[in-house]
Amino acid sequence: MANANGARRVVVTGSGAVTPIGLSVDDMWASMKVGKCGVTALGGFPLEDLKILIAAQIKDFDPKVRLKHFQRDKIIVHADRYSWFAAAAADEAVKQSGLQFPIADPYRSACIIGSGAGGLVTYENSYRALFLEGKRATHPLTLLRIIGSSASAHVGIEFGIKGPTFATCSACSTATHALGIARDYIKNGVVDVAIAGASESVINYGTMKAWQALHVLSPEGCFPFAKKRNGTVLGEGAGVLVLESLEHAQARGATILAELVGYGMSSDAKDMVNPDIEGPMVAMRDALADAGITPADIDYLNAHGTATTINDANETNAIKEVFGNHAKKLAISSTKSMTGHPLGAGGGIEATVCIRAMKDNWVPPTIGLDEPDPACDLDYIPNKGRDLEVKYAMSNSFAFGGLNAVVVFGPPPA
Question: What is the set of active-site residues?
Fold first, then answer.
């Protein structure tokens, strides 16, 4: 079924996530129900002189167990950690979708799985081996592990995808851009099916030093919109969706989770670090216009909400400008308070949150919000989630460099 302008409608039939608070969507959601925080003491590598000693790391992930059934991709268990997460999230999403891959015409499928940083864990381990341990060579798969498109290639190989297969890279907007591009490919008839999202695993000594130098990490925790917030907390993980044209999903009798009804993007074009209000406003407005709905139709907004002083106040002001009077009635939360900031993967994980909120009519909280910042005076669902009928949900992703991307999900078509 097409829209009035002839463009095809795009639906979600599968979702997958790997996060510090759950290695699947169900486990993550159960953790959100009880307000579990994934921020813990940093570990797993030499901490040396680090000053920031917390992060939201994924623990107990064994690729030899989680990915042992992969058949076409013979080297996935030897890939970088970020590719493991992408493969696991994609596998979960594909299983939920019920799609049989390769599809009948594999050139009519796409795999767009981005990463803001690619295989940084491999980079660091390889440099340590060469420059500190005096080894004469690195692992033979080093080059393949570090490439930012490796995750998309691994997933594409496993599921026999022969259409557009590549990575997006736009810092914290990476996953949302991937979802938007995949949606546009389906909408305009380039492909019928897409696996899309992003994955990230960057927590190591060098990365922590780099983020410390920028002075945006908190030594205490991730507290979006709170008066006490003093920086974000690095996280890791992956979020992936299976998207299909409505006709394709209906023809095979698929269970449709939601419709991806709107997508907007913009660039501030002003500053690499300090955000602007106009760019996020335009991205949200364009997503609403693309969806053909009004601001008052949005029931839940998953905010970018990084817990940095400037970003949270800026996003609050942008929401007020876009939503007007409805802003005070809108249920908003930052689930980064629980998952930490998974950088490029954030939009994919948060898309799964929006879809699950629509399914369960329950919205997750912003934990650690004991005393709101007076500059952040909207309903950020403090500390405890709540029952709420959610017909339309919006997810915001605003990245370094002023790169903004927003998606809107609506109910499954009748």
Answer: 172, 304, 341
